[in-house]
Design brief:
By secondary structure, the chain is an alpha/beta fold. The chain has 2 domains: 146 residues, Rossmann fold (3-Layer(aba) Sandwich), CATH 3.40.50.1000; 107 residues, Hypothetical Protein, Haloacid Dehalogenase-like Hydrolase, Chain: A, domain 2 (2-Layer Sandwich). Helix content is 31%, strand content 26%. It contains 9 helices and 16 strands. The strands form 3 sheets. The chain has an 8-stranded mixed sheet with strand order 7-6-5-4-1-14-15-16, sandwiched between helices. Strand 4, helix 2 and strand 5 form a beta-alpha-beta unit. Helix 1 runs parallel beside helix 9. The longest helix is centred in the middle third of the chain and has 15 residues. It is globular and about 55 Å long.
Length: 262
């Protein structure tokens, strides 16, 4: 038995779809008795939005960059949270940071914090459809729930600015959180959470080693998956810094599955 752990956005889900070639390959992989782990920064709602339109069989969902794990029946088997007190401090610190927007997910919904000082005219309108609701700053700070994931999105899509946000978060809050840059998003998750840690937990539960694990992703939040197996894949067109951490380069997920089935 072999395991495929695949990122979702930018990996399986590209150009607002999952290609038919990738879907066929995933079905073939499952037919031959292998297992599929979807490993993403998205929450339950975000994953379901995609799989409702492009369904395929999976065995595990690693969500919120490892803060949340569910089985094939969507039963939660592991969960960690960012304490509300820390969440609010981060919101207060970064609400007026350049041209950035903040969103957070408390397990029941994903909220975007509105900021009228940020020009969103160049942001694709579909981007905002990912959020359950938009809230103002006071509403966000009055929320008492903990979060599974937060993210700070740089509207101007500046990698350098996103790196600065990441560095400041690590300086100020590393005792409580892990931080991953995912393109122009700076994802914030509970301490000791990552995709790699979550996948190792799944494999331990399955009494499997990483020898038969294949991982594929396109961004820095996938590096923790790359580090736990020699069978790590990324794409030819990703940032060079991401390529540095992977052992194999392809253009599509179905090519990874082809290697698995050889």
């Amino acid at each position: 038995m072999r395991f495929l752990a695949s990122d979702l956005d930018g990996t399986l889900f590209r150009d607002n779809k999952i290609s038919e070639k990738d879907l066929r390959a995933l079905r073939r992989l499952k037919e031959l008795g292998n297992k599929v782990i979807v490993s993403t920064g998205r929450s339950f709602k975000g994953v379901n939005d995609i799989l409702r339109e492009y369904p395929f069989e999976y065995d595990y969902l690693v969500m919120c960059n490892g803060a949340l794990i569910a089985d094939s029946n969507n039963k939660i088997i592991h969960e960690k949270v960012i304490p509300n007190k820390i969440q609010n401090k981060i919101i207060e610190s970064f609400y007026n940071w350049d041209d950035s927007l903040i969103y957070y997910d408390d397990g029941s919904a994903t909220y975007m914090i509105q900021n009228d000082n940020v020009d969103t005219s160049k942001v694709d309108a579909d981007f905002f459809n990912h959020f359950s609701d938009r809230v103002n700053l006071d509403m966000a700070l009055s929320n008492t729930a903990d979060s599974q994931i937060m993210s700070i999105f740089n509207v101007s899509q500046s990698i350098s600015m996103s790196e600065l946000v990441k560095e400041k978060l690590l300086v100020d809050y590393s005792e409580y959180i892990e931080v991953f840059r995912n393109q122009f998003f700076v994802d914030i998750v509970p301490k000791n959470c990552s995709k790699g840690i979550a996948i190792e937990m799944i494999l331990e539960n399955e009494n499997m080693t990483t020898d038969n694990l294949y991982t594929v992703g396109d961004s820095l939040n996938d590096v923790s998956m790359f580090k736990i197996t020699n069978n790590s894949y990324t794409f030819n067109n990703v940032e060079e810094i991401v390529k540095h951490h992977a052992n194999n380069f392809v253009d599509y997920v179905y090519e990874v599955i082809g290697d698995m089935l050889e």
